[in-house]
Task: structure prediction
Amino acid sequence: MHYMGLANHSTYAATKAAVRSYVRTWAAEFKDSGIRANLLSPGPVDTPIMDSQASTPEQAAAIRKMYSNYTPMLRIGRPEELAAAAVFLASDESSFMTGSDMVVDGGVSNV
Result:
C-alpha cells in the first residue's frame, strides 16, 4: 500500500517516499565503507495497531477482515513473517543487496 495513492494519507505517503529515498542515497553514500542500506516495506500485519484503530473488539475484527479481503493472499501478515524478512536483510544472506526495498505485503502492491 506504500506505493499507492490513498486519499487522506498524504503525510504517511510522503514519509514512506522519504525513507525509500534515504535508503537509495545511503546505499550510494556508504558503498565504499561496506555498509549496506535496505528497506523493509510491510503490508497489513496483525499487530496491536489494528486494535488501536477500532473502538470495540468487533470493529477490530472487521478491520482485520477488510485487510484480509484486500490482500491477494487473503490474510494479513504475521509479525514473525516481518521479523524473518528483517533477519534476512540483517544477515550475510542478503550480502549482495543494497538500496533495495523488500516488500512483504502479501501482494497488495503488486497485484
User: Anything to note?
Assistant: The mean pLDDT is 93. The domain at 10-104 is CATH 3.40.50.720 (Rossmann fold). The beta strands are 39-42, 101-104.
